[in-house]
Amino acid sequence: MAEPLVIVENPGDWKDAYPALRVVTARDYLAGAVEDLDRDLRVINLARDYSYLSVGYYISLLAEARGHRVIPSVRTMQDLSRKSIYTLDTEELERIARKTVGRAQPDVIVNGIELMIYFGESAAPAWQELARQLFDAFRCPVLRVELRRQGEWRISAIQAMHPHALDAAQQASFAEALSVYVTRRWNKPRSRTRYRYDLAILHDADEQLPPSDRGALKKMIRAGKALGVDVDLITRKDYGRLAEYDALFIRETTNIDHYTYRFAKKAESEGMVVIDDPDSILRCTNKVYLAELLKAHRIPRPKTVIVSRENVKNLADELGFPLVLKIPDGSFSRGVVKAENPAELKKVSAQFFRDSDLILAQEFMYTDFDWRVGILNRKPLFVCQYFMSKKHWQIVNHATKGAPQSGGFKTFSIEDAPPKVVKTALRAANLVGDGLYGVDMKQIGDRVVVIEVNDNPNIDSGVEDLVLGDALYTALMAEFVRRIEGQQA
């Protein structure tokens, strides 16, 4: 069985009454200064804050990149971050809660109940079934659950708690549940499945740099109809009727802190086929996670440093100047800044640290173009060269007046692209999943390095489809059909 490893922000957060387990600080784990990080570890993340881009968030993010099994996962953190997300999974839980209220308190009139759940355990035996089901849905060390009578009983709030906020009796229950938990196997909850034959494409007609232009969207609709799939263009206003479809294709720029993630989450919870799936969004939208994932699997990349406030002063010695700083969840060249000297490094890093506890720094590699390999279901779909914007070091220049300026492009057949580029892209994308990805790479001589893996790559009319033409869109729609029929078989 994998060894449990507890991570705390402050050594004082681990009490003497807790079980004798291996405990390390968040700083040491994030910095990689822990022995045997390559082992099969069960990480229990007891950071005080699980919010997006916090220290607790990064602990779980890097744990997943390192191949460790972690509780809570990044996905659980995101699922608990908004009621609009976690209520997708509470319908069956509320049914159990209503039954339990009737059994536990048949003669008492109450309008609110608070439950504390420790690793799926409740101190009140009557609530144990609900506690276990809640833990299966939201695997978090400590959960505070509020039930409110709103005509009928409903779950009004689910909140992740830190052990330091517990009173003495609760601390004892936490310690007992933890002792039991570390002796169990970690099993994944089963997901529901339900499928039909309609495809929704989520898009935003007003997005400045959408992943697919109007011409490409029209070709997707036409290709889908040729395969017997009714394709509808939907917008964020159609969230409430998403379950009418059997598949969702997200053609908006995705982000975790965005409604595109909520669409992906809801589609999955409804048993729909979805690209981009929630896990791909989580894995691809954070550059720190991708950097650690590529490192763990020895995928070639630029020299890269995960930067905290403590080690930013060492960047000049490690990377030299110029160097590139990246905010973790930027897209389309946003949040990517070149620092030419120590003064610029200090200014930019201070700005980035206002939004994230960790940022990314990489060696500067100028090339005339970047490679992108589009990959669908672990197979290459298209290959493009994207050239740098005029008099600029990036493909998209956001600093120009008016609309952002982009460089040119050149599209290749898979057979004519350099084999090393295609092979490296496949290795990187396969670490993320089996969806639709765009792997960005740079090439200097024989050196090919991965810059990032995009979960929502551009597919525009007359660009990525220049070689395959309509066959590219047929391949996309055929993949949705394959997945739907595979689930129904």
Automatic annotation (TrEMBL):
Name the record gives this protein: Carboxylate--amine ligase
GO MF annotation: an example: metal ion binding
Pfam families: RimK (PF08443), RLAN (PF14401)
Record keyword Nuclease present: no
GO biological-process terms attached to the record: SOS response
Keywords, sorted A to Z: ATP-binding, Ligase, Manganese, Nucleotide-binding
Highest taxon of source: Bacteria
